[in-house]
């Protein structure tokens, strides 16, 4: 396993060698046509980037040469110097020296001496015919050609490769199952080897798609500065966990959602400087954008020390909008009340926006996270601040799932939304207000037969009775939008990684299923969509 330092060093080397190749090309173009402004601009940019990257990695001598070269190209660009004569000779020598220094870093060797070059570059800046020797021609004749160890690949090519790997995994599982049924030892051995190879291939392809979360997080200081300036607020942004890795496509999908949360935090979450001072808070608000890992998930959090969410105001508004009865609303805990903020259109209410400073467009943010099989959590203390947590899978290609059986058919449910599995007896279940309820880990959870939920049509669910509960009940506790729901199934099967494929027409319009997967037996297995199931239950129980 490579260390982070090794990975950064390899990336630096690849980019530096690529920059060196581009410098060599552009300086030759400039020699042919000293008026080539595009080549000159590109040389200036390359030197500037190499200077910054080298200094960031601690290769200060490379950064110093690049800095001096950048200065000269700046003077040429501003027409204060001409690319000709000894100036051109020194700049060619500078590019060659940079190449030699980069190669020395890659070979873990001492960097070549650059004092004479720096002295000549300083002379050129001061307007002083530099000190040249006769070794340059010999060095040019013996120059080595280097190729980068890094290959840049378009994301769509990696997407295609990952899809092929997914198909391979499905066939692999079928072959493994068949080999076990046939019982041929040679076939079983070959199948086991195929399993190991495809497993390694799958994770290698997934690893190739990983990028640092910092590629997105590092873009937010400017966003925060601009919004804070427009709102006349003082906000300090702290970033952490930039080196956490995640699938590039996941990062792309959550970009707008994260942008929305950060803008809302600054624009609505923070009080004005006067309000903060009156509340005894520092005038400057603190915003933290962080990433961390939790088991197989990546957590990205947006935390502010602003005004927080007024839960009682949200509770009243939920009753006014008919989302919950007044009696039921009184029984909801704070997290269940805050979940109403994710309902479509709910946050458009002026009162909630003014009091909590939260909610506008949170349903859109939630949909983006749901599309990935992720979760969006919110925690808040009135007057102290709010934290939004995006719970994301590391990869969207292969997902952990729990397989179960219902009416002799196999179904899958993503582990991302699976809280726990329990087996309960009739005495453990109670009927409250026409709903089956069970106490699971100290919490009352509504329970419903998945068979009834899937096959009851569009009307409301009939009131539950104890009489319908006979024998041991296998129950999957799912969690969506801070709401838990127990689904009664026929029996649990096993936990395994699955490749989810989209539903084909016309089944793709059925919201309850998020796709299909093919089991090792060749059986098509429907994958349940927990958000859709939860919404269906809430709609039908009214």
TrEMBL record:
Recorded GO cellular component terms are: cytoplasm
Query: Which keywords does this Swiss-Prot/TrEMBL entry list?
Result: ATP-binding, Chemotaxis, Kinase, Nucleotide-binding, Phosphoprotein, Transferase, Two-component regulatory system
**Domain CheW-like as annotated: residue spans:** 398-539
Q: Which residues form the HPt domain?
A: 1-105
Top-level enzyme category? transferase
Is Manganese a UniProt keyword of this protein? no
SMART domains associated with the record:
CheW, H-kinase_dim, HATPase_c, HPT
Q: Which Gene3D superfamilies match?
A: Histidine kinase CheA-like, homodimeric domain, Histidine kinase-like ATPase, C-terminal domain, HPT domain, SH3 Domains
Instruction: From the UniProt record, list the reaction(s) this protein catalyses.
Output: ATP + protein L-histidine = ADP + protein N-phospho-L-histidine
Superkingdom as given in the UniProt entry: Bacteria
Q: InterPro entries under this entry?
A: Bact_Chemotaxis_CheA, CheA-like_dim, CheA-like_homodim_sf, CheW-like_dom_sf, CheW-lke_dom, HATPase_C_sf, HATPase_dom, His_kinase_dom
Biological processes, Gene Ontology terms: chemotaxis
Q: What is its EC number?
A: 2.7.13.3
Report the residues modified as Phosphohistidine: 48
GO molecular function, a single term = phosphorelay sensor kinase activity
Q: Which residues form the Histidine kinase domain?
A: 157-396
The protein's matches in CDD domains, at most eight in alphabetical order, are given as: HPT (cd00088)
Q: Does the keyword DNA-binding apply?
A: no
Pfam families recorded for this chain? CheW, H-kinase_dim, HATPase_c, Hpt
What is the annotated role of this protein in its UniProt record? Involved in the transmission of sensory signals from the chemoreceptors to the flagellar motors. CheA is autophosphorylated; it can transfer its phosphate group to either CheB or CheY.
For this entry, the protein name equals Chemotaxis protein CheA
Native source species: Hymenobacter psychrotolerans DSM 18569
**Lineage, uppermost ranks:** Bacteria, Pseudomonadati, Bacteroidota, Cytophagia, Cytophagales
